[in-house]
Amino acid sequence: MGRPARWGVLVLALGVTATSLVACSKNTGEHGGTAPRPKISGGISTDPADSRGPAPAVPGARRGGTIDLLQDSDYGHLDPQRTYSIREFAIEQEFARPLTSFRQDSAGRITLVGDLATTPGTDVRHDCTTWRFTLKDGLRYADGSTITAADVAYGVARSFASFESDGPHYIQQWLANSPDYNAKYHGPYDGGAAVPPGVTVSGRTLTFRFAKPHCDLPFAASMGTTVPVPKDKDTKQRYDLAPFSSGPYRIADYAKGSKLTLVRNRYWDPATDPIRHAYPDRLVVKLGLTDELQANQEIADSGDARYSISQNSVPQQLLSKVTGAVAARSTKGLTSFVQYLAINTQRVKDLTVRRAMEYAINRAGLVQVIGGPLRGTPTTTMLSPATIGYHHYDAYPAGPNGDPAKARKLLAGKHPKLVYGYENNAEGQKQATVVKAAFEKAGFRISLSPIDAATFYSSQQRRDNPWDFYLANWAADWPSGSTVLPPLFDGRGLQPQGNSDTSYLDDPAIDKQIDRIGALPFAQAAPEWGKLDQRIVTDTAAAVPAYDSNFVGVNGSKVGGVVLSKVLATPVFTDVYVKP
């Protein structure tokens, strides 16, 4: 994804281990006058020991029991090659293992390690065009059979099939050297090869060969694309209902829209796994519970709710109850989702007008109507502080409430008429009121246009949409600017519909920088993405950064080990356990 809706510089560089902490930044009044953000450190592990299991024990944890995971809606997909949302990724960790995974320690450091693979990958030619992964010994599926490199290659192969198009396309496009990745090779069906072009298998080793450098391959390999699938277990579209387990749990029962039950894979060997613990005997996902119902159950903390975890953030009207003992069992923190005003540059062509819009925004007001600081933090950057290469800047200093005087000065007596498209739900309506008031105070004339909540994002993604600007959001697929700035601002891939670049920016100078940075070694590229972030907002004013989203969840008093993933921006369950 980039996914529509990843603190400081996240040092995830090839050849750099995750050992040094980065100092917190000085508060300069930037980011709308917010307090300084803590910066975290991390890295791609260069020590094979980091990729071995078992994962370090969680203090106080014990085996046994059942934990319920409460969720408002069902998963779109469980087929690992089709998963592409944070909740899908979170539950997938429990029954599916890719080549690499992120490990997050108690200090918040993030390290990419080998999951199925012995290391996070070897850059064979030292130019990011050839990558080699060797599988560990002792890897077993839920039936006791061996997980093979050929199965990983088959998983990658099936991701080329047209019915798998909902999943990420990075590795497929890199192998095909084309955005139209399955124009020639369509996957292992109808006579297609079981190993995709560009991949070779030799014993326990897979090698990926690309026509161009792709230094992010170790990160892309952490997604479901590289989850192994035995050819004789592949049921094509029906695989979505019962994917074959390579992780510590297997799917025992799945009633769509109602419940998903995971039980132990008795053949999973913790000695091979540096990420997961699998303390509970069972994980039961209960579907169809609203965020309000989840929060009320967790706050009451009685009966089965004591053994449950809410996966939705606490709604605004209940945040005041997350205090005292309830706060002690809450999971709070900055996520990697950035909310921003995307300006449709096809319609708002005047750069001066767009720069006036940068000054008009009332960030504090937008945050206040969603629940205040617990739910959001004003920002002036497109990259989240949880993104590699994050660079702290404020291109249009306007304070937390905007600077209407500066906006009016730029407009020089003009009163541009703009149409603001907003999500037609309670939160979207409140935010639309804030936008209208702030922009009209700055000299604009604003018409509000409701967009059905079910089609809010897909409507923005139509090139012929009728709105001048709208609130959009994005989270990186992995903590790198490479999965934020290119999808949001590279205009060369614009289509009639399905666009991630909902600002419809088509600027050859920006595209040239995207290509330049994309070809750099990873350690060099990271700070360059931060510089490009500032250049895009400063030079094009195609988007107005608004706020970073925060998560506030609550779990029952009998649950321990709940962690908010800084990569996935949602609670994950690799450390959870039932308290006595």
From TrEMBL:
Location of the Solute-binding protein family domain: 112-492
Record flagged with keyword Isomerase: no
Record PROSITE patterns: PROKAR_LIPOPROTEIN
Database matches in Pfam families: SBP_bac_5
Biological processes, Gene Ontology terms: peptide transport
Signal sequence annotation: 1-23
Alphabetical UniProt keywords: Signal
Superkingdom as given in the UniProt entry: Bacteria
UniProt-listed PANTHER family: ABC TRANSPORTER SUBSTRATE-BINDING PROTEIN, PERIPLASMIC BINDING COMPONENT OF ABC TRANSPORTER
Protein name: ABC transporter
Organism: Actinocatenispora thailandica
